[in-house]
What we know:
Layout: H1 2-8, H2 13-36, E1 41-43, E2 52-53, H3 64-68, E3 71-72, H4 73-90, H5 93-103, H6 105-110, H7 115-141, E4 144-146, H8 153-164, H9 168-189, H10 195-223
Antiparallel strand pairs: 1-4, 2-3
Helix pairs in contact: 1-7, 4-5, 5-7, 8-9, 8-10, 9-10
Amino acid sequence: xxxxxxxxxxxxxxxxxxxxxxxxxxxxxxxxxxxxxxxxxxxxxxxxxxxxxxxxxxxxxxxxxxxxxxxxxxxxxxxxxxxxxxxxxxxxxxxxxxxxxxxxxxxxxxxxxxxxxxxxxxxxxxxxxxxxxxxxxxxxxxxxxxxxxxxxxxxxxxxxxxxxxxxxxxxxxxxxxxxxxxxxxxxxxxxxxxxxxxxxxxxxxxxxxxxxxxxxxxxxxxxx
Length: 224
């Protein structure tokens, strides 16, 4: 749907994405009621969690061991895919075409390649990866589904991409940073801080990063 309206119909990316997100919120609530007959949350003992990977002796390392061992299979898949996609984009002809589709689409047209088809394929792959992120939330972190359980993490991911200017390995580090802040906010609740304050920490950091990024861009523009 996003590819149709944004790529093929030349709609504004931001407006289309906001519209689809609003649609998704309402559609999720509707399907939850119509398919499962519940509202707000769906929980079933038959839901099986994704397996965690035990790294054996690595788990005995102080601090670091508990961070590395016992993570979901999707966590390690995400890390591996970050390196694999980075190599694909920079050391493969198809990856070069994909980058050109976003940076210089007319160059692709001159050699008879449709940038719209490449963008559509990339968006389909992106949707599949985002679905894996949703699976991590719903059948790994927990084994239930709650309306709005992503809690704006997709927008934080967008901030990370903007902050790192699409450089994949930097995006991986940025995601780890925001994940650390999110986990720390949960820990701080145990110290007596209000939940509203701790829940706001990742979004405050996102706004701070956006402000720094905007300031850097304006300085470069003035210097040029």
